[in-house]
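Justification of resources, computational component.

The compute hours requested in this renewal are based largely on the per-chain cost of generating structure records like the one below. Each record pairs the submitted sequence with a full structure-token output. That output is archived, and it is also reused by downstream analysis tasks.
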Amino acid sequence: MKYKLLLLDIDGTLRPSGYERIPRENAEAVNAVQKAGVKIAIATGRGRTGVGKGLLRSIKPDGWVCAGGAQLLDNKENDLALHRLSNEEMYALVDFFEDYELPLRFTFHDANYAYIGYQMFVEREKAKNLNNHIVDGEDQDHHLVEMPFGAFGFIPRALSQKFQEKYGYLGLQFLYSYPGSDDCDISETGVDKGRGLCELAGLMGIDPAECVAVGDGDNDVPMLRAAGLGIAMGNASEPAKAAADRIGPMAEPCGVAELCRSLWPEAF
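The structure output for this chain reads:
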């Protein structure tokens, strides 16, 4: 199979945990594959606004699957598709998270607005070197400018079940990053990286079977299943590994570069 599109998760994949930016070797390898004719897409739970300047070094993607599949962009960063939350869905999340005093933020075009628990998000960003462009949104009014196309929160799984018992009719899904973690992307049912892969590939005239997807977290599972070749990093969660066709190297120090060299040796 000649693969035409490579989709890469950022955190835990391109950017090993704790690194401020992706390693130079990863950027150079991805650029070599792109120069050889393979299209490159970034597939991340971050909104585009949360991918800070310099994070990807010299990589210039041909497309983006952001906010866990809710925001698709082209190579000039124009929106191709947006899957926004409705007023009812957003208000239900805010009410529930406030009741249990849980941190909650929403993704908009200009920033990630923390409606609840801004300080906890700040502390997490510093601890994990994320730099996800989170601002204090505790006045809870930015949705009057535009509706968000992504949500992210810290919520124990038992409480997410309580949310579904109360608001299950809304069809929201909680996509946790890793087993045992309480941080998760929140979106409408069917909006995930797998759908984003299929949508972006279709817009590029590429069959999903001609795509390689690389990730490490539970929220990468739909993407790994949708791709013709799904690769879970060696440090990936067990659900990601189970969904993948192949297990790759550890992300640290430059596992993506190693993968690129093995999949497209002609590019080097």
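Helices lie at 24-35, 87-99, 118-128, 157-167, 193-203, 221-226, 238-243, 255-263. The longest strand covers residues 183-188.
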